[in-house]
Design goal:
By secondary structure, the chain is mostly helical. The protein is 64% helix and 0% strand.
Length: 83
């Protein structure tokens, strides 16, 4: 038995794999199980999106800094006097 009631192992596995799988399995369940399964799947999906966004928010600027091309050497303008 799992947290969604007496789901068979294959349905529980399908529901855990993807959001579409959870929706598909939920459609075949009694209303109480369906509601709980959809709420849990939606929450897990949202948490995954938030985690991905947080990782991207840190990784993208870090990669931009790390991959920044080296600065070109400073060239004096014509007529500029050395100090």
């Amino acid at each position: 038995m799992n947290s969604f009631g007496p789901l068979p192992a294959d349905q529980a596995s399908t529901a855990q794999d993807t959001l579409a799988g959870a929706i598909s399995v939920a459609e075949q369940q009694p209303i109480a199980v369906k509601s709980q399964l959809l709420d849990t799947a939606r929450e897990a999906f949202t948490q995954g999106i938030h985690l991905s966004a947080a990782i991207s928010a840190v990784a993208a600027p870090a990669m931009a800094i790390w991959r920044r091309p080296p600065a070109a050497p400073h060239r004096r303008q014509r007529g500029q006097i050395r100090a």
